[in-house]
Input
Amino acid sequence: MTAIQRDLAGRDPGLAGLLAALGQDGPAAGGPVITADVPAGRLEDAVRRIAARPAARLADVFASAADRGDAVILRLIWGLDADHAYLVTESVIEAERYPSLSDIAPAAFYEECEIYEQFGIRPAGTKPLNRVALPPIADCDLPRLGRAPAPPPADVHAPHVVGGHAFEFPFGPVRQVGVESLYYGLVTSGEEVVDLYLFTWHKYRGVEWRLQGRTPRDALFHVERTEGLGAVGPAWAFAAAAEAALGLAPPPQAERSRAIALELDRLYNHAAATAALCQSTGLVIGQAAAEIALERLLRLNAAAFGHRYLFGVVDIGGAAAGPDAAALRRDLPGAYGELRRAADALLSTNSFLDRLEATGILSQEAAARLGLVGPVARATGLPIDVRADHPASPYAELLPEVATADGGDVLARFRVMLAEAAESVRLIEEMLGAGAGPGRAEPSGGAGGAGSDAAASGLGWAESCRGEALAWVALDDRGRITRARLRPASVRNWRGFDDACRSQNVFTDIPIIEASFWLTVAGTAR
Amino acid sequence: MTAGTDTSRGVKETSEALREAVARQFGRSLHIRTLDTGSCAACEQEIRLLAAPHYDLHRLGFFFTPAPRHADLLMATGPMIRAFGPAARKTYEAMPGPKLVVATGACALGGVYQPDAFTHGGIAGTLPVDVWIPGCPPSPLALLQGLLVAVGRLAEKVQDLSFTQNGTPR
Amino acid sequence: MPLWFIRGLRRGVVTTRYPARPDDSAALLPTPPSFRPGALTIAVADRLAQVCPSRALTREGEVLLYDVGACTACGRCRAEVPAAVTDSGQFELAATIRARLIKRIPLADGGRAPGSGAEVSP
Output
């Protein structure tokens, strides 16, 4: 990512005060990523201080094995959206326990479970940790990034009492035709959804483990195919992380190429979500109209970049493909028009709107507490969008409009997607005007990053169709990955799905809510 | 029905007879159950588009069904994550015979993922495959061709393609 | 819902005629590569095998083993050695026998006659 150079003095002095309290004299660079070493003993205090900062959200938590001994490095990635910066705190944990993060930032609970499974260290306290990636097979011994947990994590089923009766039945993993495998426990008293537990371990592929030892370019192939439905965002985030580690700045026309691909990615996914919404409400004719739009958008992708799902556009250092501008200019208006007309008809169909209104309500408070991102968060009124909050070229010059809505129900999410689609078309047209094409910055000299660990690691981000996609990469002195962290938006937003399905909703609402979230299991079970 | 997984002459002749039986049984209409064994979700989107207006598999006599009991053909994507294996076998075994299995996409055919602790690296060892459809993801047109080959309504082409240029037929 | 009915009638039919008629949209699709045997030296074959992220290309002696089934049409082999690799343009690739998807392409350094669909299990 091109660094947007800001002088620390030009920032809110509160940020300087926060960093001083963390024991930092100044950031490592005046750019959009600040790294801070926080000793384990001061971690809890640091988390409280940062969480208290306005518009600070805990975007990710992950661990890596330290170079020596059994120690583990715990990294927290904070999105300081109001300061237009990411803050990465690094703490060396030598004990088996670290301060509980989810008590202060509930968004971290899922990550605490992940870390326990992968590294065998757990937060202080007695809160039981759920299974995330491990299937419930007694003799299962999957490779991990660190030490195996002891005792192994368990499935947590809270007792449910609703009017005295509630029962749980498991659903999946083989579900409706044409959808991904997903296993969930549905707790109900009959028709009402009391609770919903998701288990994604059927699709867990161990991608982070598999990326170790690879070059970034090799790894990118697998990163694209981690969440193929909406591949550009996570691929960009990963490429940006590698570029930050290698000190590469993609050429401007390549950045615009990537951004055009990202907006096309957003367009087709929103069209697909529209089709899924129609299918879930039984409006077959609306589904057909949305699918016509979707097919035209996928063909547009193939005409512009040579692949219906935009694989192979993002490259380490830039873009491997540039858009066929003539084809894009010729076909985009018609394809988007198809979606627009379908959406207008849907917004005039009361029987459809009735199913969407007040269904799957997520409050803004819940969205903030759970650390949700993307259209799901924006539909509750939270204006978070990394294109505006952490603008990297070319978005910094384009000033994309952030679409929000009130109410947090399915209809609000639908409206946000439609507004974003319109904005994507505008952004594509502007970028075509400025010129976009393939191009790659090559590493100068060696593979980069010889010496200190800090020099050979990097954070990358992109606003994928589902929201903020993050990636963090550490390279050794031969340029090979020692640790790759992938955090697609789906990882975050599935935890909002439970909330949105609970109470006031019935079974038949679940597919509608799922369509409005438009997540993938693949993006979580990576 | 395991036609197509062995190459000795005797089994080839048997598989010819089986193919004719398949064409008789399924040639006019059949029901498809999909199975995600660990895909990236792109294959699923292309499969969903088979029922969309541009492709409309119904006009060819193909229908999707959620019930394995009702299904004639299992369309499986993904590299067969080991933890999913039992669910895959249960789905296959719930289908009454005769039945076909179509391995869909590069992951199911053994590409992208190598066999390791997490994944089998393809569906062949877990399910008996009748038709293989390459692609990443295979487009709806490629999927239609694969389904029509599976029921014997279109002839296979790939055995005659050499994938070379300069004098050799393409 | 007269609104939808009229929209539908006006929109018309978009359904492909495939397989009765070929479909133009096929021309947009990425396809597995074809190779130029004259440009396939052992060194080139090794480079191609090295760069393929899906292990669709391996060199076995003086033959390039090309698993069309494992190919994702990612284009990295073509970017690596453009002189040796081109698009096949083929998308009708379904096979009832897995071995039919494994092509043995003789290298320029070897002298064997070309064969396809040989008895090689993946």
Q: What stands out?
A: The interface with chain A takes residues 32-49, 51-54, 64-66, 68, 78-79, 81, 83-84, 87, 90-91, 107, 112-113, 116-119, 136-137, 139 of chain B (CB under 8 Å). Residues 9-160 of chain B form a domain with the Rossmann fold fold (CATH 3.40.50.12280).
